[in-house]
Design a protein that fits this description.
The protein has about 140 residues and is an alpha+beta fold. It has one domain: Pnp Oxidase, Chain A (Roll), CATH 2.30.110.10. The chain contains 4 helices and 9 strands. The strands form 2 sheets. A 5-stranded antiparallel sheet has the order 2-1-5-6-9, with helices on one face. A 4-stranded antiparallel sheet has the order 3-4-8-7. Helix 3 packs across helix 4. About 20% of the residues are buried.
Length: about 140
């Protein structure tokens, strides 16, 4: 993941895909962080995505760049779900995407507890389009 550190440290776009009860895909934009060699996303305790995960635990997270070299990372499988550390992760992620002041305010206004989803970096697949872009 070292070669992708600028992508993973930036407030890059990310998409979480879970499975609805009928098996169809439910895709949602999310904020994430890469912490302790894991990809982490915080989901509000009452969010439908947690109901999806209870029925179908496997899901995927895609993190990507919208400008050259158009690198990306996909993690797929069953994340670990925990409430431990969810508030701190939410604060850290919010500050990364919104800046320190707004991130702290955003976290303080979130009354609903969160659940932390974690995928180890070992399940990640990456892509980098540098080699195929025109020069």
């Amino acid at each position: 993941m070292q070669a992708f550190s600028s992508l993973l440290e930036a407030p890059s776009p990310a998409v979480l895909t879970t499975c609805r009860q009928d098996g169809s895909a439910a895709t949602s934009p999310v904020w994430f962080r890469f912490h302790d060699r894991c990809f982490e996303v915080v989901i509000a305790e009452n969010d439908v995505k947690l109901r999806h995960l209870a029925a179908h635990p496997a899901c995927s997270l895609v993190v990507f760049e919208t400008a050259p070299p158009f690198r990306g990372v996909r993690v797929q499988g069953e994340p670990t779900l925990t409430r431990d550390g969810a508030h701190e992760a939410r604060r850290s992620i919010s500050c990364r995407y919104l800046g320190p002041e707004q991130g702290e305010r955003f976290t303080a206004q979130r009354a609903t507890p969160g659940v932390l989803l974690r995928w180890p970096a070992s399940v990640a697949r990456t892509w980098d389009l540098t080699a195929i872009l025109p020069t």
